[in-house]
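Please, structure for the following, as tokens.
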Amino acid sequence: MALAHSPESRRLARSAGEIKRYRLLMKVLPIAATCLGLVITIIYISAILYNRFGSFTVSINRFDNLDYSLALSETPDFANPITRLNSKAAEDVTNISIDDLPADLDSINGSHNGANHIAYTFHLKNTGQKAVTFEYHLYIVNVTNNVDDAVRVRLYVNGEYTDYAKTRSDGGGAEPGTTEFMTESTIVRKQMANLEPGETVRFTVVMWLEGSDPECVDAIIGGQFKIDMTVSILDLEK
């Protein structure tokens, strides 16, 4: 004949089980917390070790007139003309010298980043029926840790390039061999007149951290930098 368990014995059994589970939980929690802390630490260290250049985007501001039209393409044949292009981001970059840049920066179509620089070549074409005047605006989208203090941006336009840099922190003007950013957020803003139908313009954008810059210091480690470009039709040429 089975013995009936009293309410007291059932409570004792439950209490023993709860104590066992509690002890197991107390053993598992520290291990889990340690693993989580390790993962967070690894992510944090990875984040601060390097600087990052965000992907570069160029887009055309639409103009509602078929006679005046521009298109973009990574290749000069314009097999797939579009109004927006996007390059790959460059991660885990460190500082280099301008002398470390390859000589063929303006000779490779599309995205051709190096280990420590970002490079993107694209083409703009007048796909309309009439000549146009347009403006290109190269501007800063995001910057952290004052990494822009040491960034260089090179812009090729039809084979001719200019190196741009932020004004020296001491207010002493441009960094050697560079043209100053126009403002805190605008690198360059220029117009090109009378682009004839079918005529094209070749652009190459290059970014790197200049190791010889006095502002290239440990304080900028982990910084991020992203720029974009917009192209806008300004005037309707007759």
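Residues 41-50 have pLDDT under 50 and may be disordered. Residues 61 and 232 are 5 Å apart (CA to CA).
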